[in-house]
UniProtKB/TrEMBL annotation:
Organism: Crassostrea virginica
GO biological process: chitin biosynthetic process
An annotated Gene Ontology molecular function: chitin synthase activity
Keywords, in A-Z order: Glycosyltransferase, Membrane, Transferase, Transmembrane, Transmembrane helix
Region (Disordered): 1078-1158
Coiled-coil ranges (or none): none
Protein name (record): chitin synthase
Topological type in the membrane: Multi-pass membrane protein
Biased segments, Polar residues type: 1098-1110
Compositional bias of kind Acidic residues: 1135-1157
SMART domains documented for this protein: SAM
Classification via InterPro entries: Chitin_synth, Nucleotide-diphossugar_trans, SAM, SAM/pointed_sf
GO cellular component, one term: cell periphery
EC number: 2.4.1.16
């Protein structure tokens, strides 16, 4: 039994199924007798109580602008325009469906009566036969399209097949009897009423089944049964009275027997028991906690054991299992048998309809012969009967498609149920009103018996329809009105059969619609998806984001918290994984910045009301957010010395944390998981993203609709200012979603299904061993994650109804570095996708051949992009300035070669500056090119209007007039169409972009950014491509990198610089030998220096060239006056004694550094290196507060020659937290000097009359020279410390004050040990770290080999790209100069090139149109019918989610 603390409530000590709870925080007191204290007893919170209340001051209140801005930012939900649009759309679709149903019914009566008494009976018979066959032929084609190549769709069992054949035979026979006999036996109105009598059978089914969700359902059904029986009796009486063939009503009965709901359920019963998704049990020994388990947040230790996670991960990573024989069946996709059942049903119906129709003339229609019907029936003409056939066929299709769309967009009440109920009564009204009936009878050319004759027949027809309509309203109307609606359900989820029936389409839609609680494959497709619990983990990766970016994320999380409650159907948790957030036990500045925002952004009144826990990867802080949502917010602070850094490893951390630990904390009393993996999602976000609850719901709508969707990404709007932002705003487009599957769901804002991540995380967690793998895995982790998902059979969708905003690069260098990663990873992933195409097609049927061709075109266009730009620029300069095309091409190639050499041999600063210059020059050239192209377009338009034959008068006689010869413009397609392909192509692009802008009204203004895009086109497709390919060897992230400078600098007088230059020029005359020390690898990719990469580094000097000081003030313990500069310390030639390494390693890992009490360098140095203390002290590095910024280069410049010593010391220095000087104005210079660690210079300050704070103002203008000469500070470490301190000698900003206060408070908060608090979670993290997250030792890693492989790969790509682009330029230039090879004014290859690229643009445009329609459907489906209501969603439940 775990000992409980006296200060904790008994409920807190009890077990809980949640992994979080009311854990005592730093605010709560506990007794020292507890097993472990949850708070620091001495810590008190009196500062806030002692603060004076100044809220009454006007300056402390919010301005009107701030209040309005906050009100606008917090406003959520649909606008009134959306509600009005929903009503207009519903009304329009209701009218279309009603009109289609009525026209379909009346035109069918016209065709049936023409069979009975028309002048062209044979043609009418064949038309009716086609009417019966057409829906089944269409269904057969659709079924084949969806079945071919789909081995994952199961076949129904033999019993189900037999039932399908029997049902299809009954339906076919009944429909044939109905069309050829029943409808024409009585009056037209009685025929409409006769179609309704079959509803007696499904009403009996509902009477037996019942419905608990509808009040007084059974009594209402019983009354409706009486009404239906009464209507049936009236219809029979009408047929008997009119001496009609009453037996023909059997056809309707046969149809409704075939449509019995019980038959539908049996037809779609599962083939195997494995088709039913079993309940997920937590395996024995796994990491889980049942309802009786003890909560970690209550501070209780959990001692249950589970199987070794470590060994599992090792086996997964080291040996990925081979694919199973039938991997497709493992994909959790929609396994409905609807399409294969439809295939059997359609084929059977075609056969039976044709067979029964051929038998009818032999037995029931003896006045006709089938041979005559077949010979004469196909002689159709465009007459009234043909119009009836066309109207009936088209109206049936329109009614079904519109009905499916109404249900798809949650408009089924007004646009589906109401039209279905009103269609038959309205048809009867039109047929009993003499004027309308007579007009249709005359138009159809049928007999006089078509209309109702006599008042009694009129009354009986109305009574029959009234009785059946009441029965439909009480049963089907109420059931369909209350059916559970999911947003954007598919056709197979809405209807049993994804097909239509044009003869009895109204009745077919009634009985074919799936109702609440009806199951397919043993799974309730409507109820379970709606009522199952859903859990969403918001996981964010963060590094060095700004305060504004962090606040934007936190405000988005706060909106999620406000939108949910404890009873919601969806539960959210938020986890932030912050890289390099803690060093040892010291929280870094960016972590403090994030914590300081919590009070304002998340409404946490006391930020320190949290749980601070030391973990194997660093530290974590947990808050339980205020409000009824019970949402937790956790910040995971990563120590890069304990766990691998970078985004991909943070992703693996939260994926494993959710999949293997968090998701197993929620189990029921039977040990089953409360939330299945298919209903557990991870919402990945960047640290600067802005989103709303509505956007999250829109993503989850697509997830809940289709369980085969593994990820859904949203529409991203770039934020920022400047030309680069405008350029990026013009770029965004999406065509992959329509063609097959999205290939990249960016981690900035996407939802992933946990069951899908389980399939790919073993591969995703593998390390980089090859150069090509590095481009795929570490340069574009989001794209690789999605590539793995597509390869595993999952579909990735794009949801434009979900919107988010994120900051994009605003600076040239940051933009180029970001795109350098994107371009390299995109090319690598596309190449990998194309190479493994056959395997992907076998695993994922959604990836079509067209999608493969599309990717090949994109890859080709990317490779030949530079040469294409060169050719376009050369042609434009020829038009604009008359520059020779050949010389223009040669000049551009030379520029490309020069820039390539700069990228290969020069540093990043050179590359960025030269890239900016080339971008500017190309922008100037593109301006001229655009003017030249505009001139050509204008000439083409003038020639198009003016280049027509003109007659010249000759003697007044028209016959003698002469015709001026037509001059064909150069480059024109033909004489009749004197416009060049350039003009035609440009016009097509402009039209596409304008239409696209019109379909995106809110982004229409982005078309203006197209001007910037065109000017920067050469930079984006030429300069950027070269930069990206050359720099694939750069393994840095590129953006938000830590920028620091060397602490120890080398300064050389001018004559030394001149000496170096002269030696390089006259190298052959230099006979002096140099004894340079072995160089240290200082490449920008050196793994040792990755953490402290510098913008500029000075090459190490040889001992002979070192002056007495390495930079002013750096002293050596040895003499510099002789020939040797050897240190007097014998350690440079010695090796530490054996047996010290283990002790040093242990002390190194266990050291704790305190800024207030720093460790002296003599104590800090390991055994065997103590003599280096004099070097450190003489240069101003006397304690650990001064050592934190030293790099390995600095150590070498200090005089530590031994490479092994430098590496050892540098590794220890990296464990020292960075000493940050607080920003502020001190009380006096003495206090300030003590704070910055330079108290020894107090006398120097007094000598310079710096005695008060006012005197310290002079320090702000001090340079290094004044610091050295006036203050007599000569040690490099002290000089750098003084310069840093002077920079921070100012009044702190509000944010800096908050960070300083937060640092003080967090340092005083009590820290728990995860090993004592939660053994299960501690073991999980230890196993995960040991499996794949332990940081590699740089010296023993494969970084050097990888660097060499990347260089080789870079050279290969450069060679291939150069050869391909050169060949393309030569071919295009050669063909363009050959007049004989030109086709339509251009060379064949250019024509093919334009056609291919034009095809890509048109394909993307068509896909955009399709996707805009689906996006509009999504908006309509989510829109409410009342003002003030929130959006509808698949996750909504009554009184469960406030936003619903």
């Amino acid at each position: 039994m775990l000992k409980t603390c006296p200060g904790i409530e008994p409920a807190a000590a009890a077990g809980s199924h949640k992994y979080f709870g009311s854990l005592p925080t730093v605010y709560e007191r506990t007794e020292h007798s507890c097993q472990y204290s949850m708070a620091t007893p001495e810590f008190k919170f009196e500062s806030e109580a002692q603060e004076e209340d100044v809220s009454y001051l006007s300056v402390k209140k919010k301005s009107k602008i701030e209040r309005c801005t906050k009100k606008l930012s917090t406003h959520s939900g649909p606008s009134k325009l959306i509600v009005v649009l929903k009503w207009i759309t519903t009304t329009l679709f209701a009218a279309v469906i009603l009109a289609s149903l009525v026209s379909s019914k009346i035109t069918l009566l016209g065709l049936a009566w023409n069979v009975k008494s028309g002048t062209e009976r044979e043609e009418a018979f064949v038309m009716c036969l086609v009417v019966l066959l057409a829906p089944n032929v269409i269904s057969l084609v659709r079924a084949l399209w969806n079945v071919i190549g789909r081995s994952d769709i199961p076949w129904p069992s033999k019993d189900c097949m037999a039932l399908v054949v029997l049902s299809s035979a009954l339906e076919s026979a009944g429909l044939c009897i109905l069309v050829f006999k029943t409808l024409a036996s009585g009056s037209a109105a009685s025929g409409v009423s006769a179609m309704q009598i079959g509803f007696v059978l499904p009403i009996l089914y509902h009477l037996k089944k019942g419905n608990r969700d509808i009040r007084c359902f059974r009594p209402a059904v019983f009354f409706s049964l009486l009404c239906a029986l009464g209507g049936t009796g009236v219809v029979i009486y009408i047929y008997v009275k009119n001496s009609a063939e009453v037996w023909s009503l059997v056809g309707i009965v046969l149809v409704f027997i075939a449509w019995l709901p019980s038959f539908h359920k049996k037809m779609f019963s599962p083939v195997k028991s494995t088709d039913i998704e079993p309940k997920q049990r937590v395996p024995r020994g796994s990491i889980n906690r049942s309802n009786t388990s003890r909560s970690y947040l209550h501070g209780q230790s959990l001692s249950s054991e589970y199987s070794s996670f470590k060994s599992t991960y090792r086996s997964i990573i080291s040996d990925i299992p081979s694919p199973k024989p039938d991997p497709i069946s493992e994909v959790p996709c929609d396994k409905t048998t609807a399409w294969k059942v439809l295939l059997i049903s359609s084929f059977t119906k075609i056969i039976f309809i044709f067979g029964v129709s051929s038998l009818l003339p032999l037995f029931l229609m003896r006045d006709m012969k089938f041979k005559d019907i077949w010979d004469k029936g196909w002689d159709w003409g465009i007459d009234n009967m043909f119009v009836l056939f066309i109207v009936h066929t088209s109206s049936g299709i329109v009614a079904y498609v519109t009905g499916v769309f109404a249900c798809h967009t949650c408009m089924d009440r007004g646009a589906f149920v109401v039209p279905l109920i009103l269609s038959s009564p309205l048809s009867v009204v039109l047929l009993v009103v003499s004027s309308s009936c007579d007009w249709f009878k005359n138009y159809s050319e049928v007999s006089v018996d078509f209309c109702v004759s006599g008042s009694s027949s009129l009354v009986l027809s109305i009574v029959a329809m009234l009785c059946t309509s009441i029965a439909l309203i009480l049963v089907f109307g109420r059931v369909l009105w209350n059916v559970n609606k999911l947003v954007l359900q598919k056709e197979t989820q809405l209807f049993w059969f994804p097909a239509y029936n044009s003869v009895m389409i109204e009745q077919w839609l009634f009985v074919n619609r799936k109702l609440s609680g009806e199951k397919e494959n043993g799974i309730d497709k409507t109820r379970t998806r709606k009522h199952e619990k859903t859990r969403v983990y918001i996981c964010t990766t963060m590094y060095r984001e700004s305060r504004k970016e962090m606040q934007q994320l936190l405000e988005s999380i706060e909106k999620i918290r406000q939108a949910t409650s404890s009873s919601s159907a969806i539960h959210f948790e938020s986890h932030v994984f912050l890289d390099d957030a803690v060093r040892g036990y010291e929280v870094t500045e960016f972590a403090l910045q994030l914590v300081s925002l919590l009070k304002e952004a998340l409404g946490i009144e006391y930020v320190l009301k949290c749980t601070k826990t030391a973990t194997p990867y660093g530290m974590k802080l947990v808050w339980k957010l205020p409000g009824p949502s019970e949402m937790t917010f956790t910040i995971h602070l990563k120590d890069t010395k304990k766990v691998k850094k970078k985004k991909r490893w943070s992703q693996i951390m939260y994926m494993s944390y959710v999949l293997d630990f968090l998701s197993k904390q929620y189990v029921d009393k039977d040990g089953n998981l409360e939330v299945k993996d298919s209903d557990c999602f991870i919402l990945t976000t960047d640290a600067d993203v802005k989103f709303t609850p509505e956007s999250v719901e829109a993503l989850l709508d697509l997830m809940k609709r289709d369980t085969s969707v593994g990820a859904v990404c949203a529409r991203t709007y770039p934020l920022g200012e400047g030309p680069l932002v405008w350029y990026q705003q013009f770029e965004y487009a999406a065509a992959e979603h329509v063609l097959g599957s999205v290939l990249c769901a960016p981690g900035s804002f996407s939802v992933y299904r946990c069951s899908a991540l389980k399939d790919i995380v073993p591969t995703y967690a593998t390390t980089v061993e090859r150069a090509f793998d590095f481009l795929i895995k570490d340069m574009g982790e989001d794209r690789w994650l999605c590539t793995l998902m597509v390869q595993s059979g999952w579909r990735i969708e794009y949801c434009a109804a979900s919107e988010n905003e994120t900051y994009c690069p605003e600076e040239f260098g940051e933009f180029y570095k970001q795109r350098r990663r994107w371009i390299a990873s995109t090319l690598a992933n596309i190449i990998s996708l194309i190479k493994e195409w056959s395997l992907i097609r076998a695993l994922n049927h959604r990836v079509s051949y067209l999608f493969c061709v599309y990717q090949i075109f994109l890859l080709t266009s990317t490779f030949i992009g530079p040469s294409t730009v060169i050719i376009i620029i050369a042609g434009g300069l020829d038009y604009a300035w008359g520059v020779n095309v050949v010389w223009s091409v040669v000049l551009q190639i030379a520029v490309c070669l020069i820039y390539t050499l700069i990228c290969v041999y020069k540093n990043e600063k050179w590359q960025m500056q030269s890239g900016k210059i080339i971008t500017f020059l190309y922008a100037v050239v593109m301006t001229a090119v655009l003017v030249g192209i505009a001139e050509q377009v204008a000439e083409d338009l003038i020639n198009f209007d003016g280049n027509k034959p003109k007659s010249k008068p000759g003697g007044g006689d028209s016959a003698s007039s002469t015709i001026e010869p037509i001059t064909r413009p150069p480059g024109a397609i033909s004489d009749d169409f004197p416009i060049s392909f350039v003009t035609l192509y440009l016009g097509l692009l402009v039209a596409i972009f304008i239409v696209t802008g019109m379909l995106h009204p809110s982004e229409f203004k982005c078309l203006l950014n197209g001007i910037i895009y065109l000017l920067c086109l050469p930079s984006g497709y030429l300069v950027l491509n070269i930069y990206s390919i050359v720099n694939i060897t750069d393994r840095s992230w590129g953006t938000r990198e830590e920028k620091e400078h060397n602490t120890v600098k080398v300064t050389k007088p001018w004559y030394n610089e001149l000496e170096i230059v002269m030696r390089k020029v006259f190298f052959c005359c230099d006979k002096k030998e140099t004894l340079e020390a072995p160089p240290v690898a200082e490449s920008k990719d050196d793994p040792v220096n990755r953490r402290h990469r510098r913008d500029s580094q000075t090459e190490p000097l040889s001992p002979q060239r070192l002056s007495q000081t390495i930079g002013p003030g750096i002293k050596y313990s040895g003499s510099v006056q002789g020939k040797s500069l050897r240190l007097s310390d014998p350690l440079n030639d010695s090796i530490p004694e054996d047996g010290d390494s283990d002790e040093e390693e242990q002390s190194e890992s266990g050291e704790e550094y305190d800024e207030e009490n720093p460790m002296l360098v003599e104590k800090w140095l390991p055994k065997g290196m103590k003599s280096y203390a004099k070097i450190f002290i003489d240069n101003g590095f006397q304690n650990t507060n001064f050592l934190g910024k030293l790099t390995e280069i600095d150590l070498k410049r200090l005089g530590i020659k031994k490479l092994a010593h430098r590496r050892n010391l540098h590794r220890r220095i990296q464990n020292i937290p960075e000493f940050r000087i607080p920003v502020g104005v001190p009380r006096d210079p003495n206090t300030w000097l003590e704070t910055v660690g330079l108290a020894e210079y107090k006398a120097n300050f007094r000598q310079n009359h710096i005695k008060t704070v006012r005197d310290m103002e002079a320090l702000k203008s001090f340079t290094e020279k004044e610091i050295r000469e006036d203050l007599h500070i000569t040690k490099p470490g002290h000089i750098q410390r003084m310069k840093d301190a002077i920079k921070r000698l100012r009044n702190p900003t509000k944010e800096e004050r908050e960070i300083a206060e937060m640092k003080e408070e967090i340092s005083q908060a009590f820290k728990h040990d995860l090993r004592s608090v939660n053994k299960e979670e501690h073991k999980f993290w230890k196993d995960l770290l040991h499996a794949c997250l332990e940081p590699d030792l740089d010296a023993f890693g494969s970084d050097e080999i990888l660097k060499g492989n990347l260089l080789t790969l870079r050279n290969e790509w450069l060679m291939v790209s150069g050869i391909v682009n050169c060949l393309w330029i030569v071919i295009i230039m050669t063909l363009s100069r050959s007049i004989d090879l030109q086709i339509a004014g251009t060379n064949p290859l250019s024509l093919v090139f334009l056609i291919v690229f034009g095809f890509l643009f048109v394909l993307q445009f068509v896909c955009m149109l399709v996707h805009r329609f689906t996006t509009l459907s999504h908006f309509i489906a989510r829109a409410p019918y009342r003002f003030g209501q929130s959006y509808q969603t698949s996750l909504c439940q009554t009184q469960m989610m406030r936003i619903c």
